[in-house]
Every structure is written in structure tokens, then in C-alpha cells.
Specification:
heterodimer, A: 0% strand, globular, B: 0% strand, disordered C terminus
């Protein structure tokens, strides 16, 4: 299978990085503003929880459960394990939230707990158990048509296999960057390493991914080395 | 405004630019370089194809029924967690409603322990005219100060609650 709608590589304006770079970027300021608002909202919910309002914790769970589950799902590849990890994340957060001082972003802290639990789980399990879990049980969206769904599942299998084949820390960084769109600085805080380490690890991970996915993307040459 | 990027800088920053949100000035600098460098443009295209393939994998989409079950399970787990003794104790100590009473109780406990450990058994009453080994060291000034020292001792031994003990009452009981 080859990705539909392959990239036209005839001119610079066909590349999103070029196109978006040349255009005005009103969204980036807006995004920053939204992130600040989200951070302020998180702090308000944490303070409310500290005052004894349990509903504030429920609001935090509802806000972050999907992101936590998705990170876990891409890290551990099994719905049951990912769901268990998400449960454990929120139980730990509930215990530790009264001591949360707000020096870091709540989201970063939550994702750090998530990644650490996933790394613990993958470290405890033999590799073949994880890679053997190919029962991708994506719940279909009501808007999907069967042909599209089948194609997405096929590509999903290939991509899932490529990500599975990465070492756990590389997998975590790719998941946080590509699927959660976190800046390198946040990924470094989550992974407990320097930003330069994130950059180097991402290069290594992408070199592997390019090789693995080369047959499935239009004309992408496999990276050497 | 960023400086003009060369091929090395561009390759260094490309991966960050194609995989997610990047500072606008960095993107602009990369874009300017790509406009004039076909080799970096090819590299950017290849990286973007890989990134796009990764993003083409569908996001796990869970139904509301799943999340309802998730919340119910979490509620049960938290309820069980709340029931444990350390969790209850921690919650009690954290509660602003109980903060003052907890602090007062803790202070009283510390004072009581200190008195128990440092106070020791009360000294046996000794008539002032009884000759003994101490009497050889009793100077006139010590003898003069003795009633006041006895009164202080009696207050100290009675604890903070004994505020009604007269300053000049005989101590040593």
C-alpha cells in the first residue's frame, strides 16, 4: 500500500514547512494564548481540589483522560494496558495533587507520570508480547466509511509496527512530538533529559522510521545508516 | 529576526519543523533556506512524508460508554484508596478545617513528651535545715534566690495550664 495523495516535490510551496513559514502566523500567538489559558485553568482546578472540591479533580480527568490514554495506547499498544495505565496515572495524580506546587505545567507532569508508567510496563514485559499485540481495536468513528476505515487500519498496522520496533524511549519521544505536538523543551522535561538529547534521539528514531516506512510513502528514499 | 541559515543549521532544525509546532521565526528561516536550496528541499520532503505517514495512523477513538466505564472504575479505585489509613490521615492533616486543631494537638503532644522525657521524677522534698552534701555549696545569694527558684520550678512542673500558681508559692512538691 502506498499513501494516497503523496507529496508533490516539484516546488518549495508544496511543502507545508515552506508554505506556513512564509505566511503570516497568527495561529502561533493564538496557540500560545490558548496554552496559557489552559495552564491557568489547570491551576484554578488544582487550587479548587486543594480546597476540597472533588469535582475539580473530575474536571481534570475529563480534560486529560483522552491524551493520557492515547500516549499510553501508542506506547503499550494494548487497549487494556493503556486503560490500566490511564487509571493508575489518575490515581497517582489524585494522591500527589495536594503537593503539586504549580512550578511545572500540570500537563507536563501528567505526561511524565504516563510515560514513566508505560516505560515501567514495557520494561517488565518481554518484547514479543508487546509486538504480538496487533489487535488494533480502534473504535470506528460514525463518520468513517468502510473503505476508508479499512485503508486506515492497514496503514495503522504498518505505522504501529514501525513505532513498536523503536526502543521505548525513542518511541515515547516520537509519540509526544508527533501525536501530542509537544515542544522539545517539554519533552525534555517529561523524559528527564536535556533538549539536545531529545533532538539526537528524534533523529535516530526518524532515521529508523524512514527506512521502515519507505515502501509505503511515495518516493521516499530510505535513509542511509 | 533569525540569522540566515546554512544547510547544516537547516538540516538540524528540519525534523523539529516537520514533526510539530515550531517557533514562527525558525520556520520562516527554514523556509527562506529551502527556497534557494534544492538538496535541503528534498530532505524536507522526505521527512515530511514520513511525518505524514505517522500522522495518518488513526487516533484511537473511544466511545462515551468506554469513558463512562473508565470514570466509574476510577471512582471505585479512588474510594478504595481514600479508605486506607495513610490516605485518611493525610486528608485529615491537609484539611484547612482541621489545621488549627491538628496543630494544637501536635504542639500539646510535643510539650507533653518533652516534659515526660526531660522532667523526670519529682525531686524528694528536703527540709531546708537538713544538713546534706548540697549545703556546703549554698552561698548567701543562692539561699536568697531559693524561694523564687522554687516558685519557677513549681510552675514549670505544673505545665502551661498552671497559670494560677502564685509566683511566690512554695515549690518542690
Amino acid at each position: 500500500m502506498v499513501l494516497k495523495g503523496g507529496f508533490a516535490r516539484t516546488g518549495p510551496t508544496s511543502l507545508p514547512v515552506v508554505r506556513e513559514g512564509l505566511e503570516a502566523k497568527p495561529l502561533s500567538g493564538e496557540n500560545r494564548h490558548l496554552k496559557q489559558m489552559s495552564h491557568a485553568e489547570d491551576l484554578a482546578l488544582v487550587e479548587a481540589f486543594k480546597r476540597g472540591e472533588e469535582s475539580a479533580f473530575t474536571a481534570l480527568v475529563i480534560k486529560y483522560r483522552e491524551a493520557v490514554y492515547r500516549i499510553a495506547r501508542r506506547m503499550v499498544r494494548s487497549h487494556e494496558d493503556a486503560s490500566d495505565v490511564a487509571q493508575e496515572v489518575f490515581i497517582r495524580v489524585h494522591r500527589a495533587l495536594p503537593r503539586f506546587a504549580g512550578r511545572s505545567q500540570l500537563r507536563t507532569w501528567l505526561f511524565r507520570i504516563t510515560v514513566n508508567l508505560c516505560l515501567d510496563l514495557t520494561g517488565r514485559r518481554p518484547r514479543d508480547v508487546l509486538t504480538g499485540l496487533k489487535e488494533l481495536i480502534w473504535e470506528p468513528s460514525p463518520h468513517d466509511n468502510p473503505a476508508e476505515l479499512s485503508e486506515r487500519r492497514e496503514l495503522g498496522d504498518v505505522v504501529a509496527g514501525a513505532i513498536d520496533a523503536l526502543p521505548p524511549r525513542q518511541r515515547a519521544m516520537v509519540v509526544l512530538r508527533v501525536y501530542q505536538d509537544l515542544p522539545y523543551a517539554d519533552i525534555a522535561r517529561i523524559m528527564g533529559c536535556a533538549e539536545g538529547t531529545v533532538k539526537a534521539t528524534m533523529f535516530a528514531a526518524f532515521a529508523k522510521l524512514r527506512r521502515t516506512l519507505a515502501p509505503y510513502v511515495t518516493g521516499a528514499p530510505p535513509a542511509a545508516g | 529576526m533569525m540569522e540566515r541559515m546554512d544547510c547544516r543549521d537547516t538540516r538540524d532544525a528540519l525534523l523539529e519543523a516537520v514533526t510539530g509546532t515550531t517557533p514562527p521565526d525558525l520556520r520562516r528561516a527554514i523556509a527562506e533556506h529551502l527556497e534557494r536550496c534544492p538538496a535541503c528541499r528534498r530532505e524536507a520532503a522526505a521527512l515530511e512524508e514520513t511525518a505524514r505517514a505517522l500522522r495518518a495512523e488513526p487516533e484511537p477513538h473511544l466511545t462515551q460508554a468506554h469513558w463512562d466505564g473508565f470514570m466509574a472504575r476510577l471512582d471505585r479505585a479512588l474510594a478504595a484508596d481514600r479508605g486506607t489509613l495513610p490516605a485518611r490521615l493525610a486528608r485529615w492533616l491537609r484539611s484547612p478545617r482541621h489545621a488549627w486543631s491538628t496543630a494544637a494537638a501536635a504542639a500539646a503532644l510535643v510539650v507533653a513528651l518533652a516534659l515526660a522525657l526531660l522532667g523526670g521524677p519529682p525531686p524528694a522534698a528536703q527540709p531546708p535545715d537538713t544538713p546534706g552534701p548540697v549545703n556546703g555549696f549554698m552561698t548567701e545569694s543562692i539561699v536568697d534566690a531559693q524561694p523564687a527558684m522554687n516558685a519557677s520550678l513549681s510552675v514549670w512542673k505544673a505545665g502551661f495550664g498552671a497559670s494560677d500558681v502564685p509566683y511566690d508559692s512554695p515549690g518542690g512538691d
